[in-house]
Design a protein that fits this description.
8 strands, alpha+beta, six-stranded antiparallel beta sheet, globular, two-stranded antiparallel ribbon
Length: about 160
Amino acid sequence: HGGGAEATLEPLSEHLDAYGAHLAQNFGSGVQACYRGPRWYDTAETRELVREWIGFYKQYRTVLDSDIIHVRRADGRDLDCMLHVNPKGHPCGLAMVYNPCDHVASKTLELPLYYTGITDTAQIKEKDGPAASYRLDRTFHVEVPVEIPARACTWFVIDGH
């Protein structure tokens, strides 16, 4: 933006969508950032947004702090996906999927699960939803249907142990 009012998130409560996307990107990428400034939140609504993303990071810290596979290179034209993997952890995988577009994105996402340590069947759930069984193909991939609203993200928790 070149600076000025267009380049700031302050006041946070008036930019919840951008602030939420920033937190999702950082915590979803496993970034352990040192946030500086006078505050993390300015209203109860902003505080709840921060609390949700910190809770997400704490819940999945082991896998988020592990290796990352870039499933689809971020280009801003289609879904972007990175897969965190840790074959010794529970869960052993977490796929963060982002929709940077201004329309709903529906597609089948191919996830490479070789480095999760799963060899036969994966249990995959979107966020805290119910788990579904996916049989890995001969190249250790599964196909997962994804539908994400415009400018939103979701994640898939993967386990098989």
